[in-house]
């Protein structure tokens, strides 16, 4: 029984446009699809000053019914002097609802921008929002702190690096999204996990919510995917073995760890139809077009920031009691052939890596204004309980092996960073005693700061060697049968799966971590292109368009995450470790260091309070102190400091049974939850499952130059516009297309482009652990490329012309580059001549005489011959114009008749 006969499509939200109407007693939200053929209505009561009262009738209206409803509401609220029913704002989605000390506010997405496409699914970046107060009764004076809380909440600028999609679940990885569902959620639409709910659930082992949402229940429930396979097999036997295909639409339960508006949805999530709900992700998303001889290969980088133990740099270090680490970011690198956008027939590949602080109780004292606060271990953990919970969670999400790449210093005269190295290395040694050898945690250490000293440093070479080991052991995800199917674990529909994850960390998880992730991403990209049959061997060289494109994506990726966590852009960049950064960037590094130091010293406390308020870790209460009156937020993130929580977990069996049962596969994927399943039959089902309407938008006029795909960063257009070779794998000098690097194309970093810090020097800036790279004179040595690979030989200009330029394409996709046939050339010449004759700007090569056999002229879209207007028609038109201007010509017969009438009356 082939798994290809059971197809699952994500359900597309039917509410993509919203109009908010206002009356004195209610708000009416009218939601519709893009074509405005399906409508839903949400009523919000405005008379209660404290509570949020919503009415969602779950009814779908057509255009005629919604007009009748609006007319009836408008007629019923019409006043003597005012209409009483006004349209307040247009929007694209609901972010959520929030309450401080008075009534509720509603947050709407009023402006969006397409930022990426994954197959046929579009991902949008929030550009602007509107926060509207719901209650209409303003007679009571508001609480004096209400406006301050509102101002603090609005300090979270939702227009900077917040993303959503109507059809693609961006809280999950591509591998998870393409996996079949296994379980039905206990509730139709499970309650979202806010930070406060998550802490309370984990503190209570008997919590029902914890069992339902966190998948901690027993594994004896039915696997719906296997059940459907058996039913399909039985149906095939009845009809004599004839192949059938079942198609379903599913709505998956999101990964609440990456849903940043979960607190804003907590009051309404269980009551609203899911089409009203948007799951907002915070982090970084960017996409570029890697053009390989006319074949568009989309390279996408997605970074998801965790909302668990989230905060700013010096205020959030280490981990909390539940193993959630600070600055945890999941980075996914997706490569797909955009010539086929379908998930079922397309060619997709992805790889996931992550970064996060070292899982332990440690911190840095920032009460003293020093550049490098001392690192202190706050609580001894001899049995590695905190790392155990952290790695158990990683195995649940990614499988095994878990690979740690530690970039923190190991040898120091005065112990500073090396304290953290001792903590993580000892924890790994202890925990591996109890794991099966095949699933043991694997540990790598690289002191990048020490290795980068001197002009002959080879940091990237060492990182590349580690990256090759990582890719070989974890594999990459492939949605289809690739060229190299020996590596990795077999997956759904003849693809390959990634099992395990590489976890990269330094002290801050910013500068050094980003360079290491780029080195891993470069190695992964080579294997992805090789598996897709686009290159002959998994090797790509530095200074080629392909690697420069990837480098620009990771530079923007690092800048964005550094601004979110550290308050400035990257100080030390990839060029720093490659020894290619010019001295001219030294001043810029100093400015970035000062910016980061100022942000950490003066503004981090306010930013942390804002984040705690946004994520629901602190809920304002008039009977309790305000959030700014608390000297620290430690007790918000560490409730165990106030309430005794007994440890019921074994110190030797530190993993969950269901996690080890599915290894090396991740148990989250093997127990994938879905909260809604629909068939492909019925009214509206096709529109809910087919993303064609949203992606191609046939219902509106489209200009190609304004399409997202046309504006996307392109290797041929933006990196090598004047180069002789069109290959993105040829090593070029930095002067080719240097001014149009990927970092300068898209100002996604807090409204500013990363080109202001596009270069970096090797200077020693002592503001933090990530900024203490030892100074050395930049080397002018040439970076020698590795030995010529098969790709270089195939793309060399000295090769004979009769050999195929790209045999990998012929091998994998059955495309042979050859001269077109004579018949095809005749068809093409006819097409060209037809276009020339229809466009006057081209001079025809032969004189053409065409006989007009009708009353209509031969026109084109470029030129139209005006028709001949008769004299009588002109007179009629002139009289019509004069009549409108007041100058009317009276006919002689009418004038004579009028004179006769006057004369008769006079007599």
UniProtKB/TrEMBL annotation:
Top-rank taxon of the source lineage equals Eukaryota
Q: Which PANTHER family match?
A: POLYPHOSPHOINOSITIDE PHOSPHATASE
* Biological process according to GO: phosphatidylinositol dephosphorylation
Q: Which GO terms describe its molecular function?
A: phosphatidylinositol-3,5-bisphosphate 5-phosphatase activity
Q: Which UniProt keywords apply?
A: Hydrolase, Membrane
Pfam families documented for this protein: Syja_N (PF02383)
Q: Which GO terms describe its cellular component?
A: endomembrane system
Q: Which taxonomic lineage does the organism of this UniProt entry have?
A: Eukaryota, Metazoa, Ecdysozoa, Arthropoda, Hexapoda
Q: Which residues form the SAC domain?
A: 153-567
Q: Where is the composition biased (Low complexity)?
A: 753-780
Where does this chain mainly localize?
membrane
**Name of protein:** Polyphosphoinositide phosphatase
Cellular compartment(s): Endomembrane system
């Amino acid at each position: 029984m082939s798994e290809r006969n059971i197809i699952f499509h994500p359900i597309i939200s039917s509410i993509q446009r919203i109009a908010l109407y206002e009356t004195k007693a209610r708000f009416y939200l009218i939601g519709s699809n893009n074509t405005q053929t399906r409508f839903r209505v949400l009523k919000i009561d405005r008379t209660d000053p404290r509570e949020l009262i919503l009415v969602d009738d779950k009814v779908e209206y057509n255009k005629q019914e919604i007009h009748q409803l609006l007319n009836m509401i408008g007629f019923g609220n019409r006043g003597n002097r005012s209409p009483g029913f006004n349209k307040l704002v247009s929007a694209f989605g609901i972010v959520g609802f929030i309450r401080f000390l008075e009534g509720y506010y509603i947050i709407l997405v009023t402006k969006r921008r397409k930022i990426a496409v994954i197959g046929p699914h579009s991902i949008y970046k929030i550009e602007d929002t509107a926060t509207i107060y719901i209650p209409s009764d303003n007679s009571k004076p508001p609480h004096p702190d209400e406006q301050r809380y509102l101002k603090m909440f609005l300090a979270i600028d939702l227009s900077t690096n917040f993303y959503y999609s109507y059809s693609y679940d961006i809280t999950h990885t591509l591998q998870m999204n393409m996996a079949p569902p296994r379980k039905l959620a206990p509730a139709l639409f499970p309650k979202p996990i806010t930070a406060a709910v998550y802490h309370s659930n984990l503190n209570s082992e008997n919590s029902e919510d914890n069992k339902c949402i966190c998948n901690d229940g027993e594994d004896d429930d039915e696997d719906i995917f296997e059940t459907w396979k058996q039913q399909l097999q039985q149906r095939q036997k009845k009809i004599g073995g004839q192949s059938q295909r079942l198609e379903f639409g599913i709505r998956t339960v999101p990964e609440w760890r990456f849903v940043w508006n979960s607190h804003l949805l907590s009051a309404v999530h269980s009551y609203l139809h899911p089409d009203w709900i948007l799951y907002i992700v915070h982090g970084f998303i960017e996409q570029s077009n890697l053009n390989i001889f006319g074949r568009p290969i989309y390279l996408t980088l997605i970074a998801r920031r965790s909302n668990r133990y989230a905060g700013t740099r010096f205020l959030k270090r280490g981990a909390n009691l539940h193993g959630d680490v600070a600055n945890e970011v999941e980075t996914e690198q997706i490569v797909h052939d955009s010539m086929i956008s379908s998930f079922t027939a397309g060619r997709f590949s992805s790889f996931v890596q992550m970064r996060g602080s070292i899982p332990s109780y440690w911190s840095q004292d920032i009460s003293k204004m020093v550049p490098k606060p001392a690192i202190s271990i706050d609580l001894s953990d001899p049995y590695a309980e905190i790392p155990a919970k952290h790695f158990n969670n990683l195995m649940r999400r990614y499988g095994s092996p878990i690979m740690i790449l530690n970039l923190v210093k190991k040898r120091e005269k005065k112990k500073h960073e090396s304290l953290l190295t001792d903590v993580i290395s000892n924890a790994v040694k202890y925990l591996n005693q109890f794991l099966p050898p095949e699933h043991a945690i694997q540990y790598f250490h690289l002191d990048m700061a020490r290795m980068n000293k001197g002009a002959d440093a080879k940091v990237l070479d060492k990182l590349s060697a580690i990256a090759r080991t990582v890719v070989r052991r974890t594999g990459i995800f492939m949605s289809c049968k690739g060229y190299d199917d020996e590596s990795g674990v077999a997956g759904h529909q003849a693809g390959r799966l990634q099992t395990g994850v590489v976890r990269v960390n330094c002290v801050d998880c910013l500068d050094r971590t980003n360079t290491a992730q780029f080195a891993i991403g470069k190695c992964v990209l080579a294997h992805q292109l090789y598996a897709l049959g686009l290159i002959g061997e998994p090797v790509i060289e530095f200074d080629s368009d392909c690697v420069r494109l990837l480098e620009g994506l990771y530079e923007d990726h690092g800048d964005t995450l550094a601004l979110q966590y550290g308050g400035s852009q990257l100080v030390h960049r990839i060029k720093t470790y490659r020894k290619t950064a010019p001295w001219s960037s030294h001043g810029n590094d100093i400015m970035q260091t000062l910016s980061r130091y100022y942000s950490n010293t003066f503004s981090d406390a306010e930013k942390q309070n804002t984040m705690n308020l946004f994520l629901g870790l602190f809920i304002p209460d008039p009977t309790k102190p305000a959030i700014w009156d608390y000297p620290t937020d430690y007790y918000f993130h560490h409730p165990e400091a106030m309430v005794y929580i007994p440890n019921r977990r074994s110190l030797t069996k530190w993993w969950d049974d269901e996690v080890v049962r599915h290894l090396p596969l991740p148990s989250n994927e093997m127990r994938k939850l879905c909260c809604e399943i629909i068939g492909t039959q019925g009214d509206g089902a096709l529109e809910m499952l087919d993303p064609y309407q949203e992606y191609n938008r046939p219902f509106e006029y489209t200009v190609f130059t304004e399409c997202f795909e046309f504006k996307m960063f392109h290797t041929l257009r933006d990196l090598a516009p004047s180069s002789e070779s069109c290959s993105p794998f040829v090593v070029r000098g930095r002067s080719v297309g240097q001014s149009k690097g990927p970092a300068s194309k898209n100002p996604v970093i807090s409204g500013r482009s990363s080109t202001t810090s596009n270069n970096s020097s090797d200077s020693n800036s002592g503001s933090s652990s990530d900024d203490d790279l030892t100074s050395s004179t930049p080397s002018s040595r040439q970076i020698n490329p590795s030995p010529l690979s098969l790709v270089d030989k195939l793309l060399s200009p000295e090769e004979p012309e009769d050999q195929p330029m790209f045999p990998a394409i012929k091998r994998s996709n059955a495309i042979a580059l050859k001269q077109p046939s004579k018949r095809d050339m005749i068809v093409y010449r006819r097409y060209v001549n037809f276009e020339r004759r229809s466009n006057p700007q081209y001079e025809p090569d032969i004189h053409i005489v065409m006989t007009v056999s009708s009353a209509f002229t031969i026109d084109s879209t470029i030129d139209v011959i005006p028709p001949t207007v008769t004299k009588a028609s002109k007179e009629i038109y002139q009289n019509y114009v004069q009549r409108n201007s007041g100058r009317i010509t009276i006919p002689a017969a009418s004038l004579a008749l009028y004179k006769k009438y006057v004369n008769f009356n006079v007599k």
